[in-house]
Amino acid sequence: MRQMIGLCLLLPLAACGQPAEPPPPPPPPPTYADFAGTWDAVTILDGTPDPVPSRLASTPQGGGWTITLEGRDPVPMRVSMVGDSLVLISEAYESILREDVQVQLRTAAVLADSGLVGKLIATYNSPDGQEVVMGTIRATRAAPE
Predict the structure, then answer these.
(1) For the chain, first and last CA: distance in Å?
(2) DSSP alpha helices (H): ranges in the chain?
(3) Which of 99, 109, 98, 100 shows the shortest CA–CA distance to 133?
(4) Which domains does the chain have, with CATH numbers?
(5) What is the enclosing helix (H) or strand (E) of 70?
(6) Which pLDDT belongs to residue 7?
């Protein structure tokens, strides 16, 4: 009887086998340098039929960000990192979609599928007040010039 009790106590331990390997640690969060460079971006704003192409660029260390729209001078952007997201906030500039209206862009993008993918908020300042439009941004690394 004692042998049977001992066997019953050991059986669950034997069934467990070797302890599982601990999972590998998560990868380190991205740095400014991971996002650094020049990116060809496409923005799609809610309610706008056509995508808006632009070029995002930074210094090699990931600072000094700008956004350039076709036929326009580069617009400076402030940059910060929040978790795995690169957050960019532009200075106000004249909208290419709305004549005589200033707009400011805020984006939060992550590295995914060899590119940048994220959300965008465009805040338009018109004589009638502010309007906020949501959108998405996708970017791929620009080919060397």
Answers:
(1) 84
(2) 2-16, 32-35
(3) 98
(4) 32-141 (2.40.128.30)
(5) none
(6) 46
